[in-house]
Structure formats: structure tokens, C-alpha cells
Amino acid sequence: MKTLCLTLISAILLITGYGQSADSLLIKKIFNNTLTNTEAYENLKLICEKAPGRLVGSEASIVAQKIMQAYFKKLGADKVYVQEFTTDAWVCDSASVFIVAKGRNIKSLHCDALGPSPSTKPMGITAQVVEVKSIDDVKMLGSEGIAGKIVFFNRPWDHTFISTFYGYGNMVDQRAHGPAVAAEYGAAAVIIRSVTNSQDKYPHTGSTRFNETTTPAVAISTLDADLLSKTLKNDPALKVNIFVDARNLKQISTYNLIAEITGYEFPDEIIMAGGHIDAWHNTQGAHDDGAGCVMSGDVLRTFKELGIKNRRTIRVVMFMDEELYQSGGRAYAESVKEKNEKHLFALESDGGAFTPRQFTINASPRVLAHVSKLQPLFHPYGIDDIKAGWGGVDIDPLQDQGIPLAGYGTDSQRYFDMHHSANDSFDKINLRELQLGCGNMAAFIYLIDKYGVE
Ligand SMILES: [Zn+2]
């Protein structure tokens, strides 16, 4: 029996390796800490309550950065600084959509402007509606069918996709490119069905790629899209009134926020974690992406509190303007290039704070093979996959410099219920799921710091 026990123990040590068991213990220590600490949750509450609607260029976007800046200083980060840049921005003050009958607005639909939609005249635009399911439909109808009308993109979500990100990808062309194409054929305005799998009253906004157009564009809730479609079937000559009050801001000054703890062995090698601080004008942006910001910030807290000595410099970035023009990510990558900073690895969280699922890696096969060996260490904490995939919008411009990128991935089933809508509020955050995210991000950064990427 004794011999059997000894053989078993040696076999286990051989399989796991001493290093891995020491890592397991340290990772458990990290999780013991994050699962009993509420600072990330409290930071997120502050950002959501004090800085809702923090689109780039808004006062709220700076309030949110200042909340995180004060927090990083309080933590005792070695460096806390801002990285200024200029970008265009956009402000939306109000929007409305009404079904019109006998010259009167009779039914209000839940709506929001897409960014950066232009304004309408004060009385809005009243016109007949042509419902389409795709951009190809618009091209087929041509100017004859489109000019002077309100184009209503109403292709619904395909519920057969298991990952909701695929469902989103399958539907979002209507919002991203539909308005510009409809404008080319002379559309008076554009309505899109909210890009969400949920049937509810919330309009879900988002960015649309305008080519200097004067065609206003709005999203209506999925319930109202169904209602409008049904009403149109009974009365194809039906008119709708759209009103948008919004304005473009040219070349405003804003910034990314950066906090670091310096590495003791390779201070010039940087491992980055981050999220985007901005959120659409209609939302608290709790999951998208306040959660990514506070979980990234919590990596510094965990290192500090547990006295983990990092070999490389751990840098946390609160990116500005992921939503509208993605200017923060570009400014960051330009600065990395300009200063010739050595980035070993960049991790982004922009998929909400739900149950942990995976890390996706956008790097060479060699880096992927090396990093995915860490997967067994994450198994107890809900990460069952470290695989090739997307890093994140903000870190994506770093790809050109050959920097390995990674994204923290959570269970996607509820994300688009909230995405870009007033439904993405702090009460949708589960403390425990957020804490698990903090633990996984800190543990991942710890292991990359210890073992490098290849
Ligand atoms: Zn986001």
C-alpha cells in the first residue's frame, strides 16, 4: 500500500510538475483574495452611477477616468498618467420615432440615434417606410424604391447560433453599413431593428459607418420593430416621423488612462491589461465595458495586496473611445510604436462580467501553443479553453507590431440582452462572476509575467 501511495505521488508530481503545483497554490491564493474582495465591484458601481452615458467627448467620460485615476493612486501604483490625443466626437441630446396617421403622431416607438447620426430639422422627417431585410434588398430596390423614403432594416437575429457573438456578427451589417448604403440611394432616413437576441422595449444603439451623409439613422426596440412591421403589412402607405437632435464635435482633446507597477527584472518589458472606459449615451455601460475596466484595474490591486513581485512591468489601460471611432486604441498603438516600447503581451476584457469561459489568443502558433499549456491551471476557475481567437477592439491596432493579443471571454448568452442599451446597468452585475473575472485576469497576467509568451 505504502509503495503504491509513493508511486502515485511521484506520478502526480511527474505529470503536474513541481512548477505547476506551486503555480496552482499561488493561483488559489489569488482567487481567495479576489473572491473576498469587493473593490472592483465598488469601482464599477461608482462609474455606473457617477458617469453614465460616458461617450467620448462627454463630461461623464472624464468623470469615469478620474474615478479610476484616484483609485490607482490610492493603490500605490508606481506610475499613473494620462495619454492625450485628439479625436472627433458626437453628442446626442434626443431622438424620437412616431407612427403617423392623418397627419398626427399617434404611436411613439422606443428608439435611439445611431452614432454619429446627423440631426433632423426641428419637426423631424415624415415619410413613407420601406421595409427591407438586407443591404442587397436596398440595392435591388434602387433609387426608384428608396429615394425620399425611410428605409427600415428589419432582418431579425438568427437564434440558432450558440455563441451570441456570431448572432451579432450575422445581423450587425444592417446597423454598421445599412444607413450609408440607403443614403446612396437617396433615403430620407433609416430605422434599424435593434441588434439583440432579446425581445424587449430597449433600443440598442451602436456605431454606423457614415460617408459624410445627412441621412439620420435610429434604432428601435425589437418589440417595436415587430409592431412597425405588422402595422406596415396592414397599411403599406403608412408614414413615420423621425426626429434626432445631435451634433458632431471636431478634434476634441481626450485621453487614455494608464497605471503601472514596474517590473523588478525587466522593467522595460510591458504586459498590458485593459478595457474601454467609454459607453454609449443611453447606458451605464456596466458590462460594456465598465466591467472590463475594473477587472483590469483589479489586477494591480491583487498584485499589490498579495505582494506578488512582477518581473516585467504590469500596465493597465483604460481606453477612451472604443464605441464611436476607436481612436483610443489607435492612439495607444501609435504611442507604443513612437516610444519603441516593448510589449510582451496585451489582454483585453470587453465581453462583460459573466461566468468565465475562455481566453482567446491572437498570436503566432508558437505563442498560442505556449500559452495554451497554462489551461489546466485555469480549469478549477471556469476557463476550459485557451484557443485561437479575437483579442479586442482597443488592442487590435497593436497587432501590426507583432504583439501577442488575448481576450478574456465569458458566457455570452446574456450579453446582447444589455449591449448598448439602458438595460446594461449596474444591477445586472453579479458580484461573484465579476470576482471570478478579476481572479482569472490576475492569474493569467501572473503566469505570462512568470513564463513569458514562448
Ligand atoms: Zn465594449
Question: What's the structural blueprint in terms of helices and strands?
Answer:
Layout: H1 2-16, H2 18-34, H3 39-50, H4 59-75, E1 79-101, E2 104-109, E3 111-113, E4 125-132, H5 135-146, E5 150-153, H6 164-171, H7 173-176, H8 178-184, E6 189-193, E7 217-220, H9 222-234, E8 239-261, E9 266-276, H10 286-306, E10 312-319, H11 327-339, E11 342-348, E12 356-362, H12 365-372, H13 375-378, E13 385-388, E14 405-410, H14 415-418, H15 431-451
Bound molecules: zinc ion.
Residues 276, 288-289, 322, 350 line the site of zinc ion (ZN).
Task: For the structure shown, list the relevant keywords.
disordered N terminus; 39% helix; 454 residues; 14-stranded mixed beta sheet; 15 helices; binds zinc ion; alpha/beta; single chain
Characterization of the model:
The chain has 454 residues and is an alpha/beta fold. 39% of the residues lie in helices and 26% in strands. The protein contains 15 helices and 14 strands. Strands 1, 2, 3, 4, 5, 6, 7, 8, 9, 10, 11, 12, 13 and 14 form a 14-stranded mixed beta sheet that branches. Helix 5 links the parallel strand 4 and strand 5. The N terminus is likely disordered. The structure holds zinc ion. Zinc ion binds next to helix 10.
